[in-house]
Protein 1
Amino acid sequence: MKRIGGDVDGPEGYLAIAFDDRRYLDLAVNLALSVRRCEARPISVIVNAGIDLPPSERALFDQVIVAPPEDTLRGAMNKARLYDLTPYARTMYVDSDCILFSPRIEHFWHKYRGHAVAVEGHRQTGGPVFACSLGAKDAANLCAQLHLPYITVFNAGVIYFERTDAALAVFDKVKHLHAGPLRDVISYQYKHKGEYADEPFFGVALASFGVPPFEPALTARLQVTTPNVVDGVMDLDTGDLRLVKQPPGGTAQLWAGVLCHFCGLAPMKTYFDLADRLRTEAGLPLMDRALFQPVLLTATHHTEAMTHP
């Protein structure tokens, strides 16, 4: 593993991944710009060989971590390597297609401190889970086959973890499940050849260690995702992130948070307008919109945590 930048591991920081495709690095740059706009914690990016950053982009990141080759973990499953690659004692991993809107993320750094791994979601014992247009799993079947009381269901666009033995055990479990005979029982093949959806492995691993997700009110979220959005406000100046979400056949509900996860870059115009704003402020060239196409990964039966204690 090669590190470009800081030589000393830091206590806290954000971490992103930009593998294989220059476009992922473009997204990571936008994420870094949004982080630097809101707060002082550093952000690092993990890349693989062949991903190059010009000096103007390199300056945005605390460290550029060149990951060693790994043939068995592809695409999103490289999140299983986060513990091995992070330069921080306390890490907030964030998908590159996210934008931070508010310094109120400080609340979540304090809230999660002391937890080996922290995610935001819900516990589920029946019905479809981890559903997208590429596949879905059944919670009851997973619980029965894996002898679990529930499945930890969450969007893996944000994962907080600390450098502890307990966190290491979770990430090792994810790798073990992916390499094991129940891989196709737990997950399904994802966007690229040989790639599996990462969330089912993490959801099962967390549940197997008895790690429940945080289940905040819909209007007090760390992460708000864009599937099923019908209206909303995204304001970089005020830090206001409020989205009205309505799944097919469901009722409209208001979600609010500090990080917006533009799943599949949808709504694409909104994402690019925000990215253009961030890049213009930083004096960076705008992205070529023609190079990006939306990939909507939302099944008609996609559900999110709609009820909370």
Protein 2
Amino acid sequence: MAFVVITSQNTTQTVYDTDIFTLMPGSTLTAPGDAIDFDGVTFTEATVNILGTVVAGDIGVDAFTSLPAIGAANNITVRIGAEGAIFARDFALKFEDGDNIKVLNEGTMHSDRGGIYIDTESTNVRLENHGTISGNTSAGIRADGDDNYILNTGTITGTGSTAADGAVVSRNAILDNSGILSSRDGLTVFFGSGDNVFNNSGTVFGDVAYQNGADKLVNLGGGIVTGQVYTGDGTDTIINTGQISGGVVLGTDTDTYDAFGAGLTIGIVSGGDGNDTLASSDQAEHLSGGANDDKLVGRGGDDTLDGGTGADMIFAGTGNDSVIGGSENDTVRGGDGDDTVFGGSGDDDIFANAGDDNLLGEAGNDFILGGTGNDYIEGGADNDTLNGNADDDTLFGGDGNDLLVGQDGSDVLEGGDNNDTLDGGDGDDILEGGDGNDILRGRAGEDDLAGGLGRDYLTGGEGADNFVFRSIAGTVAGANRDQIMDFEQGVDTIVIAGLSPGVFEFRGTAAFAPSGNPEIRLNETATGSTIVQIDNNGDGTIDAEIRVGGVTGLTADDFVL
């Protein structure tokens, strides 16, 4: 073992096996080529301490050579003290074929090309930077070898006017950053092949990108990425409790984005290809599943959750969330808060929770179940099943043969087009059949039932119900007349006032008197039912009919005329 201590020199210095080499504070080592060279043998151990200044090659951005400041070797420890500095035209440190190398920088390292370069043949390199490392055209750090570890509490940057990266890392590397990583025009952090891990509690000015492999980014509380995060091939994981100011674009495989607490991605988190899992934090985030079958979890905050293509599972969580199911058959579960859900195309299952929600099935045969709160539920196209569940809900079937169930609360049910079934459930409900041959059941409570167009069947159920007729076209004469199935005299009411601008004259079982005034008369059948015949213009002809099943002896008091 030799202790080599030098002051200012202007020739290349050679370090031999087991040497401890020290450039003293205030000294300058200058050389036109390599400032420090390692003897070409296998090193068992050697240490280089740079406490002064090393200058390799002519400094200047207008000329480049391939002259590293310190050459390659195995089992080397390089320390740059707080007052130490390395300046070079090619790389400040370059390891072309070295293993088990340790670099500790507390000073300044700068090169017209790149700060530190670790070749693909160099493995198990540990780099700790507590100072400043910069490269002008390549990268502050480029680590291409296997199983390297980089710890940064200082600053690593690509400073040039061209696309200089901050740090380029590959092949199962670990990068721990609590300092500053930056670049001018290039990627701030780029991970190449292998399964790489990036733990960030510092600041990354710019973008982070992964190429392939099972990569991981842990953006800890206090960690900031000002740009985008891109992942490539491989199963990648992003855990975010810090802030990503841009978006996250996941790659082609099954990837995970998981945010917690105050973690926030301000841009869109895009799943890309693969069956991805995306989960937001307690903040408002925008998650987009992209292609294939994804799982999206809203957690807290007012989130936007877009399943994209594929059969997705979406959990809205707390907050007032906006959910888009996308194409194919999705499952959406709302949480607390006032959520808005668009099912998209496909046969979707949508389950609300607490809050006043807007639930729209859109295309497909959808099943939608409201939760607690006053929900608006719309089936959209095709044959849907809608259930308001608790509280006072509004249900609209839209196109298709729909089933609408109000359940608890005072609900409004409108069937829309085609042949619908409406069931009010408990509470004082309003049922509007719309177009088509509809079945309306009020159930318990004081309900209003209006069949609309088509041959409709109206059952009031328990309570004082109103059977409402608003247009002549809604209850034609003959076999397609509307049917009241359970009229209870003295309790229920038949409302026909809207069928004519004037007040109807009640004729009982007598014939029409054609007086020019609107009239109604009763035709009691042998089977114990009554056909209510309506002349809405007083010309003595039947314009509309209503069958009241199982009841005779109706009086004017049973009507609103």
Protein 3
Amino acid sequence: MYLAKMPSESVTSVSVRLTIFSEIERIAAEQKLKIQPLHDDLLLADSGLDSLGFATLVARLEDHLGYDPFATSGDLDFPVTLGDFVRFYENAAA
């Protein structure tokens, strides 16, 4: 199947969100973890991913998206919810 490439500005936040959600689901399946339904208000601590899962997620997102906002951010306020996590990546892409 071929997908038409859309201008990156119009799909950046959608593609970041979809990439994050799909990678979380993939990691959970690989590690046989039971995760909570994914939504913006989900606390990361309650998501079902452990520290290894989050480390894997950040590494894979860097591979897919080409950046690691944790490595370049001087911001000491780490994301608390899944929505915060998505926005953290979206803002780094801007």
